[in-house]
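Subject: complex prediction, re-run

Hi both,

The earlier run crashed halfway through, so I resubmitted it with identical inputs.
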Amino acid sequence: MQNYTVYVPRLAPKKEPFAPGHRACVGCGEALAVRLACKAFPPNTIVASATGCMEVISSQYPMTAWRVPWIHALFENAAAVASGVESALKAMTRKGLRPADGTKVVAMGGDGGTSDIGLQALSGAMERGHDFLYMCFDNEAYMNTGIQRSSATPFGAATTTSPAGSHSIGQRTWKKNMAAIAAAHDIPYVATASHGYPHDLMAKIAKGIAVPGPAYVHILSVCPTGWRSAPDLSVRLSRLAVETGVFPLYEIENGKYKMNLELKKLRPLQDYLRLQGRFRHLSEGTIMEIQERVIKEYERIKEKAR
Amino acid sequence: MGEKVGIEASIAIAEAAGLANPDVIAAYPITPQTHIVEHLAEMVANGEVDAEYIPVESEHSAMSACLGASAVGARTFTATAGQGLELMHEVLYIVSSMQLPVVMAVANRALSAPINVWGDHSDLMAVRDTGWIQIVVENGQEAVDNVLCAFCIAEDHRVLLPVMIHLDGFHMTHVIEPIIIPDREEVQKFVPPNNYPLPLDPGRPVTMGGVGPPTIYPEVKKYQDVHLRSTKGVILEHWDRFARAFGRQYNPVECYRTEDAKVLIMMMGSMGETAMNAVDNLRNEGISAGLLKLRLWRPFPFEELQEAVGGADLLVVVDRAISFGGPAGPFCSEVKSALYNLEKRPKVTGFVAGLGGRDIPVVGFETMVCQGMEIAEKGGGEILETYGVRE
Amino acid sequence: MSKNKEEYTWKELEIGTIFTEPGNTAEYKTGDWRSQAPTYNFDRCIKCGVCQLYCPEGCIEQDEDGYFTANLYWCKGCGICARECPTGVITMEEETE
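This time it finished cleanly. Structure:
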């Protein structure tokens, strides 16, 4: 997808493997991201999910939003369950116990289930080279349990376990770089994506599934409930995150970085922050600090992509 | 007919699991189970077993991978011990609640702290309520035979529950015994192919592991309990089938010289073999002693136990695990509870012995019987009696 | 009917409590959540489909003439479609019961 300002929705797959009637919040960016990702699945796909927003809103007994085979076990083991699914498909196909129908495996988890409690299982699955795609839907906190911080919560964001106060600026650490961690496992494909760039997102999901071996796609997912933003701005915010350099879009193919959208000039960070209540306590000084770091990190990615 | 060979029980168990033609083996090493997973790796590496061997990065992932594999319909096997069983604890409930027929060998090992790699039943007791079918074996032959039966039981459409085979760490895993390993054709005839009724399959999408709110959760749990209890009949059926095919019969409670016994001693695991000698010695001294060995732990064999206890006046239960601050050793508590409502029931005393792999000699069982008899007659004794602990 | 499944006794459950009706959340009327609903001025509509692409519910449908409208059975009234429409077709209006 070369031109990121033109949207050609009629080229998007029509199928809806993620059915409406799910219980996501009004304006949930993550549900949109999941819906789009599912459109990019090949016909035979099995999904292994971690516990989290997307699991809870999509599978309340007796209803399921999933029109593909889907399994949820625990919070921290989506990648391990996916490893088992992938191995079973491999063994059973080889032994003639099931048809060679090219069924693919996708694992999904939130930022908590991926970069915190699920990191071990993900690392193991990537190291072992299973043929699967791991999708991290990153809404930047433990949203399902009530907006607690994770290692993906951005610096300065207020959450219930990193609240802003006279003695605290909110989250005190910089967002954990999951794409770099995934790339450090020498896997063939890593990418970042945003639901504000749907064709790019769908292309990356399709690519990640198609590439043999482990693939990792990190998808920024706007959460109006947790970010304290207006529900109708979820798509706009996901674009602003990219345009301000907070969430650069790039791919790492066999260790080689490639910027998907290289911006000559980044939009001012405030354009992004001022629309979210979780940042409203920040002083100008802190905002400048963050702005500097955002530019620095952005330049770092650009340098790697050179 | 398989040949009898001198073989370490761990290796024999791996051989048996391999003969059953597993599709996926997820394995994480932990003393004293390592020889099982090592030998399985070897069999896969040299083409003897056609399976995907997943060298996972922890026991939690081992059981999680087994879960995923079983959900697709693969025949799945793993093994663990002690701390490993504890680490995968939460996953065990998921596997049984989802009704996935995973088979696992557990080399029973003491729980830390202090760290102790030797055999006792603390890990076994910690997983009582996980909803798995659990069989406790006492020697290598029983382990081999029950691993084969386990696949039949677990994958039977009337069961569809995971099965644990408990065997004593070191006392069994590292002991070389004469064991008959059945040959491949016999096993293929005995163990039918796996055919999970609702697997993860793009042709027929299902959702596994959804949210069960208070509106449905109690019904699910009641079903699980009733269902687990109902599988006893199927277990006995497969044991009978095994006896017809291979000539060795297994029962939920094994009895030794219990017909006219006035005092019974009861236990699980390899110490049962040692205790047989103790019973012989006691009989020689004129004490009317008998031995009960529990083979089927879950579902608990209430009827068989009540019948086996017969007209005995005293039942001495030996626990190889401890329940701190609890009513008695865990096994003893269950036995007392199982016998409580009987019109006529023996007195029950319990001893905790052999923790952390400490050996219980033949005379130890004799002492426990005699001490038990004294407590029954004169009263006294602690809530939790121990044997063999230095005072 | 899924509705009955909430009344199931312990004897009627599926094995492993597996859900066997893919996509049956479609029976759940999330449209009841709304406090505002999309209204349309189709004179401006260029039938680009951006609204349909961005709906988190996936409830926007295209009619025979090619115009896109939200299915009010599921529409939660988030307003993303109104915000993203390039030609300003959609306006969110307060819904009165």
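The radius of gyration of chain C is 18 Å.

- K.
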